[in-house]
């Protein structure tokens, strides 16, 4: 009889701990993605410092952006062949630079979004989901939060 009480107490404690562990895992994944977004932003600013213009992009970290920023090729404006960004393999796939597997519950891996103030206006306004965010930074990089699609994870606050 006592063994059943012990087993049920252990089961109860495990049930209470599971949501806390899941929350900690999600917070860790968000921190990892935010750090990669900051690295991308730093690489874009380093490119600007080197060439006095921003790298060409379509607003996403696709394969062209990944190739331009991570290899020593001299195409796409990187005439000196500088590698501006080192990307762990879990952040890449055939789409380019993406969120790691498991970041979204659906298993989807999406490109990071990029907004650059190429006109020197002093601010950026971007839509994340149905909400508009304004930033005074010249470069912002983000993905949608897996628990709230209207909230960014990255350098956009």
Order of helices and strands: HHEEEEEEE
Q: Whole-number radius of gyration?
A: 20 Å
Number of domains: 1
Strand order, main sheet: write it out: 3-6-7
> What gap, in angstroms, lies between the N and C termini?
55 Å
Largest sheet composition: 3 strands, antiparallel
Share of β-strand residues: 15-25%
- Secondary-structure class: alpha+beta
The low-pLDDT segments are none
- For the secondary structure, the number of strands is 7
Report helical residue fraction: 25-40%
Overall pLDDT: 89
Cα shape: elongated
Give the count of helical stretches.
2
Description of the molecule:
It is built from two helices and seven strands; from the N terminus they run ααβββββββ. The protein has 157 residues and is of the alpha+beta class. It has one domain. It is elongated. The model has no long low-confidence stretch (mean pLDDT 89).
In short:
The protein is 37% helix and 20% strand. The chain is α+β, with helices and mostly antiparallel strands and 157 residues long. It has one domain (2-154).
Any chance you could write out the topology, listing elements then pairs?
Elements: H1 2-51, H2 63-70, E1 92-93, E2 96-97, E3 113-116, E4 124-128, E5 131-135, E6 139-145, E7 148-154
Antiparallel strand pairs: 1-2, 3-6, 4-5, 6-7
